[in-house]
Amino acid sequence: MGRHRTGTTAEAARDELFGSGIRLSIGQLRHEGAGLRVGFLAMVRELPRLMAVTIRLGRASAPGALAGIVIAELVGGVATAVTLMATYRVLVPLMAGGPSRDRLLAAAPALVAIALAAGTASLMRACSKAAASRLGPRAERLAYTRLLERAANVEVAALEDAGFHNLLGAARQGTRATRIVITNAVALLTGLTNLVASAGVLAVLHPLLVPLLMATIAPKGWSAVRAARARFASAKRYMDLTRQLEVLGDLLSSPNTGPEIRAHGAAPYLLAQYDRLSSVAEEEQERLGRAEARGLLAGDALSGLASVATYAALGALLFMGTVPLAVAGAAVMAIRTGRTSLIGLIMSTNQIYEQGLFILEWERACGEAEQRAMRTGELALPPHPVEIRARNLSFVYPHKTRPALDGVDVVIRPGEIVAFVGENGSGKSTLAKLLSGLYLPNSGQVTWGGVPIELLDRRSVFERVALAAQDFPRWPFTARVNLTIGRTDHTGDRERLWWAGLASGAATVAASLPDGWDTLLAREFMGGTELSGGQWQRIALGRAWFRDAPVLVFDEPTSSLDPRAEAEIFEKVGSLAADGRAVILITHRLASVRRVDRIYVLRQGKVIEHGSHESLMADDGTYAEMYRLQAEQYAPLPTADDKKEFSQ
Hints:
Helix content is 65%, strand content 9%.
């Protein structure tokens, strides 16, 4: 419980389930509670920089709405000032001597001015709110679209960089923050214009009234800042608890964890942990309520004392004849307007500062994504199939020291099936990604048709490649889209769909689904269906067939298929090479590579052997050893007579 009160690292480590807790991203860790670490004046100094990014987004997404907000708020501020001045004009004749009828007639023009000004102010606030409701979503959409456009164009290696991935997470928070900042910017502008209007009216009525305004709003401002920070500090602690409770709730009701929870009898333990964390959350809310009550009492007491002092000073000015009674009445209204405006201004400033930091993360992520954009040349590939070759190829993943590949030489010719084999982590998949242009080498060269891949238009390289990876995406779309997304410009090609479905076995999968190819493959959505691992693998293979590319990369393409289906798939892969396609096959099942044209054996990022199955078996090296180990798994079990003979 204590860790949620103080949030210290030592106490956070005490939690039995979550250790130091569940946080969303590096950006959240950096910026959550930023308003607690700086003073209010420091936040005010940062506002122009934070607002500038949002204003640029607003100008790009809905310039008319942005201009409408500014104009409406300025006109609304002027209307507020007119209302206060007109109030003074009403009070002057009403408090003068003479018949009541004459005094009312004298005050009538000012009363009309009050009505018109108040109506104008109300209309302007409504227009401002309407414009903000248009500007906020558009700015958020523009920010998210820009981020996604840049993220979709970075090098694949950048997406695998943990630091850049966390920055994208904070940037997504920044896109959502744009709407919050715009809403609070409108509230800040409203409060600021009203505060300026109040101070301006008081300065016109009498210069001594402006210090009185400052004296009465200062305690209220202090109280508002204190209350806002108390709420935010508690919300920060409560947020961690909420995330933990949501995780526990999902685990207790998820179909993925349901069987193990029941088989292992884990439900009582998880329910007890849920009850424990719920109690902590309740205590945190009670603590916040008590803290807010104390802060409210202190703030109201100080504000009350300041108000008494202010009105006493105003009474003294009246008594001495420094200000007339009508001025004093108008001053009271102006002071009340200023106090209310200040509270809204403080709340808005705090929110803009907190959320504006995430918008800066969005700006930084967009800039870094542009720097990490996919590098490409301009040369186009010839229309005919070409040879792919790697020479002295080396590659190191970001923030790693050991090369994933080191001095690798391979060649892939049209019409060949080439296999990469080796232990996990030997560099097989990395090599395939370099050959297909998904990664660029740190040193050495990958050439297509003798041209280094850096000089080629990499999109034209991708156009020639079909990829069927072991960790293929399981798109939460229909079965049809899952397969045709391999070539989105041919989604309506029924003949192509039929051919790809037949070759991969995906058509059999689709035939077993409730709505055929139009069945949603996402169990988490209404009407969705889940597939088995083998069924998903056939869909992924169909995706590669539908793409109909001259170079196919199969990375463990049959790991979830039964032996009969696996043999069928590899036979069809062989027919693809016979049609002139180049096939790169990555597999641990060495029985599947006996008939390929060439085998490369990798270990720790280096090619240690290469050749045909027969030549490698004759060399009796690493490949032969691996092949014999796998073959022994399928050797017939010894009979009783064999065991008896062995024992003798």
